[in-house]
Amino acid sequence: MNRVRIVTIALGIGAASGGPALDLSPTTQILMENGSPYYVPATATVVSGAPVRWNNPTPTHHTVTHNDCVKDAHLCLFNSGTVAPGSHFTVSGLPAGRYPYHCSIHPIMRGQLVVTDDLSTPSQL
Prior knowledge:
The protein is mainly β. The protein has one domain (7-116): Cupredoxins -  blue copper proteins (Immunoglobulin-like), CATH 2.60.40. It is 3% helix and 32% strand. The chain contains one helix and nine strands; from the N terminus they run ββββββαβββ. The strands form two sheets. Strands 1, 2, 3, 5 and 7 form a five-stranded mixed beta sheet that branches. A hairpin with a 6-residue loop joins strand 2 (26-32) and strand 3. The longest helix has 4 residues, at 68-71. The chain is globular and about 35 Å long. The model is unreliable at 1-24 (pLDDT under 50).
């Protein structure tokens, strides 16, 4: 099984003109798939505040729904709504913790996001 980790660098516009500083935080990208393990990587570890982007290259609609959204709307930290084929969903600014999530359209699709304050923790593939 092939596992892919793509890291991109986002540059903020306006830094050259005295605007806000460049945003050099890497974006962790997670792929949605129609087969197991469904989210690749199935468990991703990121630094608190770093953006995470779920890409949907499949021909099927999916969601990225934090498991706590089902239990209590007040604890819901992210819910993508429907992510169309060829689209993506991005979240950032999560505090340290473990965030299991699933696809509300296809409940067999499950993943976990681990957010840490430890800058030396690498992403797990």
